[in-house]
Amino acid sequence: MCRRVIALAGSLLLLTGCGAADMTKQASPFANAQGAKTVTLSVQSWVGAQANVAVARYLLEHELGYRVDTVQVDEVPAWDALSQGRVDAILEDWGHPEQEQRYVEDKRTIVNGGDLGVTGHIGWFVPTYFAKAHPDVTDWKNLNEYAGRLRTPESGGKGQLLDGSPSYVTNDKALVANLDLDYQVVFAGSEAAQITQIQQFAKEKKPFLTYWYTPQWLFEKVPMTEVRLPAREDGCDADPAKTDCAYPVTPLQKYLNAGFARDGGEAAQLLKNFQWTTEDQNEVSLMIAEQKLSPEEAAEKWVDGHASVWRAWLP
User: Fold this and answer.
1) Which three-class secondary structure string do you get for 56-115?
2) Distance between CA atoms of residues 2 and 11, nearest Å
3) Entry pTM
4) pLDDT band (50, 70, 90) for residue 9
5) Can you tell me the distance from the alpha carbon of 177 to that of 181, in angstroms, rounded to the nearest whole number?
């Protein structure tokens, strides 16, 4: 998930490319601005997170009169930036127990902002057209039988497991090693690059194995079937290097800087109240990624058609 998002004045621009700002070394001019009607939101690099921020930003600006700045930060550095007050809120977190313990429980510089309303799940997927032709490929125990068919020039003689950005939550290298699979994890570098590769495979009806996640709009364009990894047991992923089980199902969370949560007024209250469905998020994501609307245009279109949802979020 590595599409870069850059905020300039009142607009949010999407650029393809890998890398992200390190907000531990720089600050938004609006972050933690005492007494000013300004808010700074962290934008994670995948399109679902961009959809959250686009709608929240639109409402903060057009309904509550705030000026909103957005910054794109990788997942772990975003927690550091949030703790330091360099950003005010993260609207979609997929689970970072170490950071939660450090900043929420111990330092108390970050507070949980509540459920986003969307449940996330990471897994391994193959295209449904391949799963229908070879139903046993959907059991991890049979993956080595297909390694030859899933080999690419980038996978070094092994089957390819396509990942997005190394900055994402991923146990894939450990899973490949611990399950003794004849596969090589190959990073596309970004969500955008990974989507392009998946779409190219699908266009040519080639088999592929990929790290992917739900919710995600691409399933509407390229149907994919999940590969069953070993069932989860208590502690199976406590040590990342020893992980040998499936990814969890994760109710996605919002997090706010503790000072902003306390003193952020109507803006903080709206973000705490912000909660929508997977269908809502996918609707906005599809407008951004597939229909090529700007995030602001997509947000405005969604807001125009869903007043009964967002009016309940207003303070």
Assistant:
1) HHHHHHHCCCCEEEEEEECHHHHHHHHHCCCCCEEEEECCCHHHHHHHHHHCCCEEEEEE
2) 19
3) 0.77
4) very low
5) 6
